[in-house]
Automatic annotation (TrEMBL):
Transmembrane segments: none annotated. This is Tetratricopeptide repeat protein. InterPro entries: TPR-like_helical_dom_sf (IPR011990), TPR_rpt (IPR019734). SUPFAM superfamilies: TPR-like.
């Protein structure tokens, strides 16, 4: 047939779902397409339209079945399977996490829309171009439904499966079109049955597929689950499980749907019970291995180690994926029955044996990482560090695993207070990896350690240089000469190199040669660099001198310098003959000249390794020694402050402060040193020491500001405030919220003069700024909002403060624009009280009468809703002497604000309007402001079709409220649902508690 004709026929399929004239029985389907056919096809008659004009003889049946099968169904079915197979190949499972239920993504299948459209096209042509009495019509419809599902067109898929369910239902009598699906009139026993019996003869089993109606039930369940219609899916699953006519061939598929339903609900215990029974329904051996791996994971999550171990073993033997084989082996080794160290050692030994096998060599990073995790359980910190380092050594491309290894190493070093090591590991992290968790926290700790390590490096370097200066001249000269030779050798500088020769001679030589592209001196005859052995050797030496011997490791420059520092320190200071009596307590093993290279930003890196260059840094004069001590004193005190404030390591801070006090007793920093020591000792619970340094501070620095802080220690710790001050500020806060602005401002000034700025909160600052905005004192408001930005950078109110400042700066232009538009603004500064109104009472009575007329016996049949049991009733109506709640009637969401000034209630309305526009833009939810009485304001959110819909939106609103209206205390507001008639009645009688009681009775635990 002409391809254009076939293309036009594809649109006719949709009429099959819409026309009420469509009727069908098993083996007989009639379609009326005349009124919907395109004009140019009006005179053409399709094979499907000729159905019934001739007898369906055996030859005709054979021809129609054969052509339908091999010309259409076979090709369409193959293409559908190819779509799924490509999606499976494209899927990359992460075996470190719980696997998705299916081994392919619907996003991937939906991306193959062209092929799926082709399936729909071929199946449609197969229906319309052949006699509808053929045995393949129902199979074509199933292919269409599956294609719609894989396109993620869930509504169309569900309609197709429902069409198969209804139109292919087996009737006993030809004219019995009124038989209801789900009754027991067609069953010999009295059990309810909705399935089609599949008692087929040998010929039918050989040449045809089973009827697709029962398969459509399975696909309908899967579609409903993905549409989040879990209730409908559960009802259909239960019905089929108890259906005696449901075929045995589909029982594993039904078990799979049951497992999928529980999996989506994260009910993993129940998932396991059905998932094991679904194994016969897998596509192939690899799909079986994947499902066994998932079962093992679920057993592991439910602490059933033996069962998990068994299924990991099964997955290992069935899989063709080497990565799954690796993780099955790893996870099997980690299935510990207890935390017994002997058992952990046994599992670690198993993993280490795996690392030596050739087939596992590409995955040694994962193996050592898993072994390190086991050692961490033991715990064996030394083994953990060793194994994590082995993992990073073998890891070349697996960034998430490498990052986790470095993160674990960093945290272990941090807990051990090896802050230089911790910083090096944190610095090795790639912070673009979102799997690390809280990136901001990691970056914050890394930055803090960078500051601390910088100060440690300065102290160690200066102390080491002072140690060299304290040597006798002979010992010093011998030590510097030996050190220079060692460093030059490590940098690849030979003894005969003239890198430190006379500059004048170098300049003279340059006159007789020219520079090549590398900045080196070329020969006079212009010989190319790579052909000149002398120049290549010189370039190699220069590179080694400048960069050292590069290793194939992360952060090679810092790692090389750090390694050199350790080696140099061992050779220079561990030798008793070279002992210098170094008195540095923070860096006893510091390298004299190279320690700073661990943190290149702290101090300059030593590059001149000649004897003169090394001696230039040694403080041999009094001025240089004083300058060196000044650096140490400043860095030592700052180090203590960094330990105290950045890391809250009070023991390390005390060590630094005590060391500073011992070495530099005159450097007391106006008493701040005593104050910090007192604070740190108090944090550690040593009250005697804390009081000792507090008394020293008061006696020696009685006029210092630090003495005032010592007298008010709560001001040093804003997070733990004085109860009396906290109560005082909470009262001020409530005065602002309730609108008593003048009194609140006056009391706040008094409190601030007593307690300082430490007791300010972002919420208090925000509502204070709103007060000044109301009074059009924009400059004061902007200054207050800037305090929120600078003092509370992590507060949700920071973004609001930034936006508010921007609006205030453009306030005049915005108001001018609105004035020109002649917009009538809502009055914000007054509270409207609604009193008894006869019109309201009349409207309420009319709504109540209408409600009772619609639901006289609490029974409702929703149009378009199909019930398997025709006796289904609507949810019962709840009522008391005053109110009545119908869950199926339209409802509003109502927010009640108690004693909140109109300024802040209006601000709350604006906040939720913005929230709806960003998160529920498609629903166009409106927020209106109303009042209940002089103390209670109402925010009414657009009505919803049912109580369930309103409650679902209300739950989202509750979660968002602490951020959207963070300036309002939670005690000041509450959320409910309410119908229009109940709202009118509530505004008339004011009896909110009566309504809440009924609401709580109808929806327990929701209000």
């Amino acid at each position: 047939m002409n391809p254009r004709i076939l293309k036009s026929l594809s649109i006719l399929l949709f009429s099959l779902f819409l026309l009420p004239e469509v009727y069908a029985q098993l083996g007989k389907i009639t379609i009326d397409l005349e009124k919907d056919k395109p004009q140019k096809f009006k005179t053409k008659t399709l094979k499907s339209e000729k159905t019934g004009e001739k007898k369906f003889t055996v030859p005709r049946r054979f021809v129609q079945n054969t052509v339908s099968h091999y010309n259409y169904f076979y090709n369409a079915n193959n293409k559908l399977n190819q779509v799924i197979e490509r999606a499976r190949i494209a899927n990359k499972d992460d075996y470190t996490k719980l696997l998705p239920f299916y081994g392919y993504s619907l996003d991937n299948t939906a991306a193959q829309k062209t092929d799926l459209d082709s399936v729909i096209y071929k199946a449609t042509a197969g229906i319309l171009l052949h006699d509808l009495r053929s045995n393949w019509v129902d199979n074509f419809y199933l292919l269409i439904g599956e294609a719609y599902y894989l396109r993620k067109d869930y509504d169309s898929a569900s309609m197709t499966f429902q069409f198969i369910n209804y139109n292919l239902f087996p009737h006993k009598k030809k004219d019995d079109d009124q038989l209801v699906v789900g009754t027991n009139e067609n069953a010999e026993n009295k059990a309810i049955s909705v399935s089609s019996k599949e008692d087929r003869n040998i010929i039918a089993k050989t040449f045809t597929r089973p009827p697709s109606r029962n398969d459509a039930f399975i696909w309908q369940i899967r579609t409903l689950i993905d549409m989040d219609q879990t209730g409908e899916a559960a009802g259909l699953i239960t019905t089929l499980q108890n259906d005696p006519a449901f075929p045995a061939r589909l029982r594993p598929a039904l078990e799979e749907m049951s497992a999928y339903w529980f999996f989506k609900q994260q009910m993993y215990d129940s998932t396991l019970a059905h998932l094991e029974n679904s194994l016969p329904n897998v596509a192939d051996l690899q799909d079986k291995a994947r499902r066994e791996f998932l079962i093992a994971q679920l057993f592991e999550m439910t602490n059933k180690q033996d069962e998990a171990k068994d299924f990991y073993d099964k997955a290992m033997h069935h899989t063709t994926d080497p990565l799954m084989d690796i993780y099955a082996n790893l996870n099997k080794a980690k299935m510990l029955k207890s935390n017994d160290p002997a058992e952990i050692d046994k599992s670690i030994a198993t993993l280490l044996r795996m690392s030596k096998k050739d087939k596992f060599q590409p995955y040694r990073d994962i193996i050592f990482f898993s072994a390190a995790q086991l050692a961490l359980i033991k715990p064996d910190t030394a083994a953990t560090v060793f194994l994590f380092k082995k993992s990073t050594f073998y890891n070349q491309e697996n960034v998430p695993i490498k990052n986790l290894a470095f993160l674990n190493l960093a945290e272990i070093s941090y807990k051990q207070k090896k802050y230089k090591d911790a910083y090096a590991f944190y610095d090795s992290l790639q912070l673009t990896d979102t799997t690390l968790g809280d990136i901001a926290k990691i970056q914050q700790r890394k930055n803090a350690l960078a500051v601390i390590v910088g100060n440690i490096n300065i102290i160690e370097r200066e102390d080491s240089l002072q140690s060299i200066a304290a040597m006798t001249p002979g010992d010093r000269d011998a030590f510097i000469k030996k050190l220079s030779k060692k460093l030059r050798k490590e940098q690849g500088i030979k003894e005969g190199d003239s890198l430190y020769s006379n500059p004048a001679a170098n300049y003279f030589d340059s006159k007789h040669a020219s520079s090549d592209i590398f900045g080196n001196v070329t020969s006079k005859n212009g010989e190319w660099y790579f052909y000149n052995a002398s120049l290549k050797s010189q370039g190699y030496t220069e590179f080694k001198r400048k960069w050292g011997k590069r290793q194939n490791v992360d952060n090679w420059r810092r790692a090389s310098a750090s390694g050199n520092a350790v080696a140099n320190t061992a050779n220079a200071f561990a030798n008793p003959d070279d002992s210098t009596g170094n008195n540095n307590q923070l860096g006893q093993n510091a390298d004299p000249l190279m320690a700073a290279t661990v943190n290149p930003t702290a101090i300059p890196v030593q590059t001149d390794f000649s004897i003169a260059g090394l001696l230039a840094n040694v403080p041999l004069t009094k001025d240089k020694l004083d300058e060196s001590n000044k650096k140490v004193s400043k860095s030592l005190f700052q180090l203590g402050k960094d330990y105290q404030n950045l890391l809250e390591d009070y023991s390390a801070a005390i060590d630094a402060y005590e060391n500073s006090l011992k070495r530099f007793p005159d450097s007391l920093y106006a008493g701040e040193l005593y104050l910090n020591l007192s604070y740190c000792y108090r944090k550690l619970g040593d009250i005697a020491k804390a009081d000792y340094y507090k008394n020293l501070l008061i006696n020696k620095f009685d006029k210092s500001k630090f003495t005032q802080l010592a007298l008010h220690p709560e001001a040093m710790e804003p997070s733990k405030k004085d109860p009396a001050a906290t109560k005082r500020y909470e009262d001020i806060y409530n005065l602002f919220i309730e609108g008593d602005f003048e009194k609140a401002v006056a009391l706040k000034k008094q409190a601030d003069s007593t307690y300082g700025a430490n007791y300010w909160s972002p919420q208090l600052l925000y509502i204070e700024s709103v007060y000044y905005i109301r009074n059009r004192d924009d400059s004061t408001a902007i200054n207050i909002l800037k305090q929120i930005i600078t003092q509370y950078p992590t507060s949700p109110l920071k973004a609001k403060a930034v936006t508010m400042i921007d609006v205030l700066k453009r306030r005049s232009s915005i108001e001018s624009y609105l004035t020109k538009l002649n917009v009538v603004r809502e009055k914000e500064d007054s509270q409207i009280v609604v009193y008894n109104d006869p019109a309201i009472i009349k409207r309420m009575q009319q709504d109540t009468s209408r409600m009772l007329a619609v639901h006289p016996n609490n029974t409702i049949i929703t149009p378009g809703k199909v019930y398997l049991d025709s006796s289904k009733r609507a949810p019962a109506i709840a009522k008391n002497a005053t109110f009545m709640i119908d869950p199926l009637s339209t409802q509003y969401v109502m927010m009640v604000l108690n004693k909140v000034d109109p300024v802040y209630s209006t601000e709350a309305k604006n906040a939720f309007t913005r929230y709806n526009s960003q998160n529920f833009y498609a629903q166009k939810i409106e927020v209106t402001k109303d009042t209940l009485d002089k103390d209670r304001t109402l925010l009414i959110f657009t009505e919803f079709l049912t109580a369930d819909a309103a409650i679902k939106y209300m739950d989202n609103l509750k979660k968002a409220a602490p951020i959207q209206i963070s300036w309002l205390p939670p005690a000041k507001y509450s959320f409910y649902i309410i119908s229009g008639s109940n709202l009118d009645l509530l505004k008339q009688n004011k009896n909110l508690q009566n309504y809440i009681d009924l609401l709580s009775k109808k929806f327990p635990g929701k209000f």
